[in-house]
Amino acid sequence: MTQKQQGGFTLIELMIVVAIIGILAAVALPAYQDYTKRAHVSEGITLAASAKAAVTEYYVSVAAWPADNTEAGLAAADKITGNAVKSVTIGDKNGNITVTYNDKVTDGATIIFAPTVAAANGSVTWTCSGGTVDDKYRPANCR
Question: Would 1 be classed as within a structural domain?
């Protein structure tokens, strides 16, 4: 007597595979969304680099902070934009640079870069711990 050999997967095996894929997708999707938001935040940090250079150059030349983008020699705040960035603004004669994001991060969320001048040699260093962007989306040096 010969036995017929099974020729495929059973329904239970297929259901287990579908359940495992569903669990993996449920875990991976939020992690991917966080990853894309972190990438959008870093776009704003990159756009702020030219503003930091302009503010530093202005400070070295004039020994004061610029009042706005025009004084620093930059385009208007709403003209410095990106895929996730609404504007890059210099303001209040304190040298602070504010990057404002659109809804690809969180609409209206900001990161603020603040300059500090070293007393010993006059060098300008920047911190980016201010603003309203959630810490989980910021690079490690901006938390």
Answer: no
Residue 106 to residue 83: CA distance in whole angstroms: 13
Number of domains comprising the chain: 1
Instruction: Find out whether 42 and 84 touch, Cβ atoms under 8 Å.
Output: no
CB 90 within 8 A of CB 97: yes
The residue among 76, 79, 137 whose CA lies nearest residue 110 is: 137
**Token pair of 20, please?**
């495992």
Domain contains 5: no
71-104: pLDDT as tens digits: 999 999 999 999 999 999 998 789 999 999 999 9
Decide if 138 is inside a domain.
yes
